[in-house]
């Protein structure tokens, strides 16, 4: 039996079994298989749990016929003791069944969360470009819960189906008429309830889609709350969120109506079944074909069979919800990374020269190189290439969310079109993954190096940093590898003393999610400190001081080179304070390297460089004079 939490190795470990994403039903079947022996153990316990409920009415009927009717006290007492034993057995097996089934539910729930987490690790920065954030969160949370509920109801439905057939056989062997009534009741329930399942599934899909969009809006609002307050946009975005939440409520109510209709059919049919069974049983007794004990048994069976019939209805409801959830999960989990493992991996030499073929930029090893561009996106794109990240505008957003106005064939065509778009994106990714990357280190193209090796050797710290909740120490050193002296050295270089002082408890001070208690400049220096503390062989920084004041920037500029001495460091910036300390500067024009040299030389010789670095005529003269004197 599998331990909890479930061991999920898909997507990040080679050779691990990946989910079956061919169809929602194939995916759900794969989820059942992932429970392994636990599913069969749960089914066995569920079947044992059904035994007392199946034989109980028969035992009561026998006690009446052989003990109470005949006045045999000893026989009656014997049957009572047997019924008591069966009742205790049923209670114990019920407790065991509940324990196993909750474990099965949790494995499906948290197994889905781990699948999404590992897919996020596999895709990295690509995931948010291909799938809406709200959809990813919904698959990890609410959809995982639906899969857990399906595991529970499937086990219970199978065990109660077996009990239903056993009871039908018992009744049929005693009374053909009443046995036929029992056998017909469940199929009749399916026939009457089936037409209601399709509209219920459609509205559940609409509710799921609207809820996914609502989750995306919530994450966007939380992420940009500080900015929204700064421009007075809270009311606008809050109003949009409120309007979308009302749409979710409306679709939930509509889905609830169809769900209530299905429930009503189940209640009506099960109640009618008990009435019919009682009426027919009374006639059978009056005609001498049944004994009183058998009638009581049949009445007990009639009441018992309400439970399987309600379970079949519940299974239909949860199955339709799970199919909707599975379709959404497949849209996330079937995405493939836009890179492949090289057949003959090469080693990456961090002490070698780095050359970017697209721009022509050559970065000498072991020196502090800074890249200047009039278009920040060009230098940011170079940073992405150096770290083997896809460019920001790459790919199209892939989602299984079908517009609400599309129904029937139109919805099928739209879903097919989106499936073709995903296939086309996968084809383009495969083609790209097999082409040379265009960045070489010592003559070795990065496409020939394992991606994990690239990530270990080359660290890119961009200007959209992520800060997670936790202690300052865990934010700076998440792997716990630094000594106190090393952490303080990174703190000093990043001029982040005020970040340390602002948190009660120093290194053990608690940061809020996204670093909400810090200013923009403090968050930026915290991220710089984290990048320096990682001490990679090659460090690429994108605008590391864009949110700090000039005095703090000057301190960082004066300390960065010494901190990274002997290691390759690339900084994308147009700040004169930083550029003055560079060992070498590369100028990009139209994304192509057109000049390189020292800061003072480029100021004197390159008008294009001066136009980027010096802001305004007065600033041009003052900065040029100041820096020329220092040099």
Structure description:
The radius of gyration is 34 Å and the shape is elongated. It is built from 21 helices and 12 strands. The strands form 3 sheets. The chain has a 6-stranded mixed β-sheet, sandwiched between helices. The C terminus is likely disordered. It is an alpha/beta fold and 631 residues long. Strand 4 and strand 5 form a beta hairpin. InterPro entries: ABC1_TM_dom, ABC1_TM_sf, ABC_transporter-like_ATP-bd, P-loop_NTPase, Type_1_exporter. It is found in: Cell membrane. Keywords: ATP-binding, Membrane, Nucleotide-binding, Transmembrane, Transmembrane helix. Its main location: membrane.
The overall strand count is: 12
CA-to-CA gap between the ends? 72 Å
Task: Write down the overall geometry.
Answer: elongated
Q: Order of strands side by side in the largest beta sheet?
A: 6-9-10-3-11-12
Instruction: Please mark out the parts with pLDDT under 50 across 5 or more consecutive residues, or reply none.
Output: 616-631
The helix fraction, in percent, is 55-70%
Structural class: alpha/beta
Average per-residue pLDDT, rounded, comes to 80
Question: Radius of gyration, Cα only, in angstroms?
Answer: 34 Å
Strand content: 5-15%
Largest sheet: 6 strands, mixed
Number of discrete helical segments: 21
Membrane topology: Multi-pass membrane protein
GO molecular function: ATP binding
Subcellular location: Cell membrane
InterPro entries: ABC1_TM_dom (IPR011527), ABC1_TM_sf (IPR036640), ABC_transporter-like_ATP-bd (IPR003439), P-loop_NTPase (IPR027417), Type_1_exporter (IPR039421)
């Amino acid at each position: 039996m599998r331990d909890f939490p479930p061991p999920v190795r898909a997507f990040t470990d080679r050779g691990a079994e990946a989910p079956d994403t061919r169809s929602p039903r194939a995916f759900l079947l794969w989820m059942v298989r992932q429970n392994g022996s636990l599913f069969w153990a749960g089914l066995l316990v569920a079947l044992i749990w059904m035994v007392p409920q199946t034989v109980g009415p028969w035992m009561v009927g026998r006690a009446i016929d052989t003990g109470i009717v005949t006045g045999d006290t000893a026989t009656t007492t014997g049957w009572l003791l047997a019924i008591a034993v069966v009742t205790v057995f049923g209670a114990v097996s019920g407790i065991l069944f509940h324990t196993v089934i909750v474990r099965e539910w949790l494995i499906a729930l948290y197994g889905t969360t781990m699948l999404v987490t590992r897919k996020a690790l596999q895709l990295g920065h690509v995931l948010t470009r291909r799938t809406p954030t709200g959809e990813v969160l919904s698959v990890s949370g609410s959809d995982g819960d639906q899969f857990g509920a399906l595991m529970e109801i499937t086990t219970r439905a199978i065990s109660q189906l077996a009990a239903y057939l056993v009871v039908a056989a018992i009744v049929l062997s005693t009374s053909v008429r009443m046995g036929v009534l029992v056998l017909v009741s469940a199929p009749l329930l399916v026939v009457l309830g089936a037409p209601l399942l399709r509209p219920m599934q459609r509205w559940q899909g609409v509710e799921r889609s609207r809820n996914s969009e609502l989750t995306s809006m919530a994450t966007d609002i939380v992420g940009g709350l500080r900015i929204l307050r700064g421009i007075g946009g809270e009311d606008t975005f809050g109003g949009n969120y409120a309007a979308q939440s009302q749409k979710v409520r409306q679709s939930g109510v509509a889905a609830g109506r169809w769900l209530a209709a299905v429930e009503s059919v189940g209640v009506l049919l099960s109640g009618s079944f008990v009435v019919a069974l009682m009426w027919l049983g009374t006639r059978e007794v009056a005609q001498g074909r049944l004994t009183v004990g058998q009638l009581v048994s049949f009445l007990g069976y009639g009441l018992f069979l309400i439970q399987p019939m309600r379970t079949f209805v519940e299974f239909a409801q949860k199955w339709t919800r799970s199919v909707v959830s599975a379709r959404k999960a497949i849209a996330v989990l079937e995405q493939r990374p836009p890179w492949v493992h090289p057949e003959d991996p090469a080693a990456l030499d961090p002490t070698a020269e780095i050359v970017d073929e697209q721009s022509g930029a050559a970065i000498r090893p072991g020196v502090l190189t800074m890249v200047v561009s009039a278009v920040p996106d060009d230098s940011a794109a170079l940073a992405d290439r150096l770290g083997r990240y896809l460019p920001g505008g790459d790919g199209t957003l892939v989602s299984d969310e079908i517009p609400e106005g599309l129904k029937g064939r139109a919805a099928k065509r739209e879903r097919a079109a989106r499936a073709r778009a995903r296939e086309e994106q996968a084809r383009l990714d495969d083609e790209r993954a097999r082409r040379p990357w265009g960045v070489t280190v010592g003559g070795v193209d990065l496409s020939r190096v394992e991606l994990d090796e690239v990530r270990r050797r080359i660290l890119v710290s961009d200007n959209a940093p992520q800060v997670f909740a936790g202690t300052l120490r865990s934010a700076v050193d998440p792997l716990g590898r630094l000594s106190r002296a090393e952490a303080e050295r990174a703190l000093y270089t990043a001029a982040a003393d005020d970040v340390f002082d602002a948190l009660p408890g120093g290194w053990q001070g608690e940061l809020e999610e996204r670093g909400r208690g810090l200013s923009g400049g403090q968050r930026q220096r915290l991220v710089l400190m984290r990048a320096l503390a990682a001490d990679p062989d090659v460090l690429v920084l994108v605008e590391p001081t864009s949110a700090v004041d000039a005095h703090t920037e000057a301190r960082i500029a004066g300390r960065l080179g010494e901190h990274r001495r002997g290691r390759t460091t690339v900084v994308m910036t147009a700040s004169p304070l930083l550029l003055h300390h560079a060992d070498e500067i590369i100028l990009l024009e139209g994304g192509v390297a057109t000049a390189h040299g020292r800061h003072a030389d480029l100021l004197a010789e390159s008008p294009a460089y001066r136009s980027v670095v010096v802001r305004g005529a007065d600033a041009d003269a003052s900065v040029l004079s100041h820096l020329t004197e220092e040099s």
